[in-house]
Amino acid sequence: VDIVRGYISVYSYDKMQSVVDKLVDMYEKGGEIVYAGSNQLGKDDLKGEAGLGFVAHAIQAAKNARDSGADEEVQVAALLHDVGWLLPKPKSGKGLTSADEKVFLAKHDTLGANFLRSLGFSDRCVTLILGHVQAKRYLCFKEKGYYEKLSEGSKFTLKHQGGIMTAEEAKAFEEHDDFKAMIQMRKWDELSKIVGLKITKPYDQFSGYREMITKSLRNDLWKHKETFNATSIVTSE
Fold it and tell me: Rounded to the nearest 5°, which phi and psi values hold at 201?
């Protein structure tokens, strides 16, 4: 089935929709799990965050991105930034102890980014998701008192996410093209932990991002195809 510049075959569109279906299903099944893994890290480690479901957190983050004027790809990244928490343990992880699982989940940014990359999401979207944790490391280095304000759960995960950035790491991070967006990702994350905020039909709202998520997949298919020639015709298997 051919994909010609500007047009996506029905087969390819259906394939992308199956990816979106998978994500929506994951959040519908895991959306009521308490955000930040209170059942994995211990409720005492996550003061002030218990009772907030993943869907509510995701919607709050995406809305904060939209209200800040972020482009659609950034909004999608904000929506899916914590998808790594919802991924099942790998088959090889059956023997993980509870302590091992805490470390495993602490790396939710890497887990989520690798998962979304495997589904065909754009490099930028994946990088932004990785970046929301790197921004946390950066802000602990850059802003006085930032580390002290972290919850005990967040301090625990930080230890397994690379710790506080060094001056050299921070300088390199500042030079990234999406540095400001990644800092914003972290800020939106922090502002999206309002327990008890009334969200009308949260699952419908999450599903309402289907078109935007599909665009993130579709745009990556057409990356670097700026002129119409023989290479602009792609065969989809």
Answer: 45, 65
Q: Round to whole Å and give the CA distance between 84 and 68.
A: 24
Predicted confidence band of residue 99 (pLDDT cuts 50, 70, 90)? low
6: helix, coil or strand?
A: coil
When pLDDT is cut at 50, 70 and 90, the band that residue 168 belongs to is very high
Q: What is the mean pLDDT of the chain?
A: 76
Q: Which residues pair with 3 in a beta bridge?
A: 234
Which DSSP letter does residue 87 get?
S
List alpha helices for the chain, DSSP H: 10-30, 38-41, 54-67, 72-80, 98-106, 108-119, 123-142, 146-149, 152-159, 167-174, 179-191, 202-207, 210-221
Length of the chain: 237
Q: Measuring CA to CA, which residue among 159, 155, 133, 160 is closest to residue 45?
A: 155
What burial class does residue 75 get, using C-beta atoms within 10 Å of its C-beta: 0-12 exposed, 13-18 middle, 19+ buried? buried
Q: Is 4 helix (H, G, I), strand (E, B) or coil?
A: strand
Q: Which residues lie closer than 8 Å to 220 by C-beta, 6 or more apart?
A: 120, 121, 122, 123
Residues in contact with 131: Cβ distance below 8 Å, sequence separation at least 6, in sequence order: 176, 178, 181, 182, 185
Q: Which of 189, 198, 182 is nearest to 82 (CA)?
A: 189
pLDDT score at 53: 77
Residue 92 has pLDDT above 60, yes or no: no
Model pTM?
A: 0.77
Q: Which residues on neighbouring strands pair with residue 234, listed in sequence order? A: 3
Q: DSSP class of residue 86?
A: G
Written as six digits, the tokens of 196 are: 């008890």
